[in-house]
Amino acid sequence: MHTVVPLHQRLLRLLRDLGPLSRAELADTLEVPRPRLLAELERLVATGLVTEAGLAASRGGRRSTLVELHPDLRFAGVDLGASSIDVEVTNGRLEPVAAYTEVADIRQGPKVILNRVAELLAKARVDGAFDRLAGVGIGVPGPVSFRDGVPVSPPIMPGWDRFPVRDFLSREYGCPAVVDNDVNIMAIGERHGGVAHSVNDYLFVKIGTGIGCGIYLTGDVYRGTDGCAGDIGHIMVDSHGPVCSCGNVGCLEAVFSGVALAREATAVARAGNSSILAEKLAEAGFLTARDVALGAAEGDISCIKLIRDGGRQIGIVLAGLVSFANPTMIVIGGGLSQLGHILLAEIRSVVYRRSLPLATGNLPVVLSELGPRAGVTGAAVLASDVAFEEAS
């Protein structure tokens, strides 16, 4: 059941998503009486969220004045990965004003990582990106209690369990903050500004250090009762497979993920089955998913097989989800989406072969359009949503 969204939130979101609009256009789109709209606008102008923006094009008769979100409005979107920090400061339209990305190890714990986020935002402030933030959104690579704003028993985030991330950010920046799972923010970002912008039911599959799925149902992210819906990386695909970080055996992400692919590639190189991988291993002392991607691009049979094997496992899990949820679209993102069309073709092939024709007849399986920006974009969307919510 959908909650009724208050007028001021709908109005602010409309200006965020569509840009400057006339009062007449706002009244028509929101389907509210003109006097009620004008009273709401007056209040939002007084709060500093909305301002006038010149004259609209003539609709016959006197030209009306446009209104827009205040040009000084700023949000911060933060995407924490297992091995990276991405920070973006946006304007009210969620267009980037400043962006920073760097390597970081989530296992260093919340104080080290969040202090680094604070340093990057301090740099953005010094560089003139903002005077103050209206909202902060952050995604973390593990299960989150969305209601409480805390990570909950995240397998790859030692020291983060129940750490008050939302309260820490809210206190630090004196504005509302919101915390979600990294895959959910990517799904939100892709729907706001990517390939899924016009669909209400879709799956966003992140394949990176771990594997997860953002689930959009009837226009909203589905998080589940405790916030861990979509944790498909821990669906068992091989009862005799390797031990996973969660302690179970044969999970999808233990069989195919950034870490798993590097492990399998190393085994292939040591067995002498790929001269390209053996050469790269001798040079660097270790292998990464990128080495496999480069080997596949050069036509190396072993690299292509590693990618296809992984794509098949993901396809099997997704075929089950397609039969279960009947989505409009599946979007593949995350670091391993760089494996490109060999991976995508294998996932498509398995999904189309194993799901019912009715569910796959009109089902595009596509790569993320936003790529590495999906997470920070979604985090900024959530930051703006929570800021608009509190503008009552």
Automatic annotation (TrEMBL):
<dbReference type="InterPro" id="IPR036388">
    <property type="entry name" value="WH-like_DNA-bd_sf"/>
</dbReference>
<dbReference type="InterPro" id="IPR000600">
    <property type="entry name" value="ROK"/>
</dbReference>
<comment type="similarity">
    <text>Belongs to the ROK (NagC/XylR) family.</text>
</comment>
<dbReference type="InterPro" id="IPR049874">
    <property type="entry name" value="ROK_cs"/>
</dbReference>
<dbReference type="InterPro" id="IPR036390">
    <property type="entry name" value="WH_DNA-bd_sf"/>
</dbReference>
<keyword id="KW-0418">Kinase</keyword>
<dbReference type="Pfam" id="PF00480">
    <property type="entry name" value="ROK"/>
</dbReference>
<dbReference type="InterPro" id="IPR043129">
    <property type="entry name" value="ATPase_NBD"/>
</dbReference>
<keyword id="KW-0808">Transferase</keyword>
<dbReference type="GO" id="GO:0016301">
    <property type="term" value="F:kinase activity"/>
</dbReference>
<protein>
    <submittedName>
        <fullName>Glucokinase-like ROK family protein</fullName>
    </submittedName>
</protein>
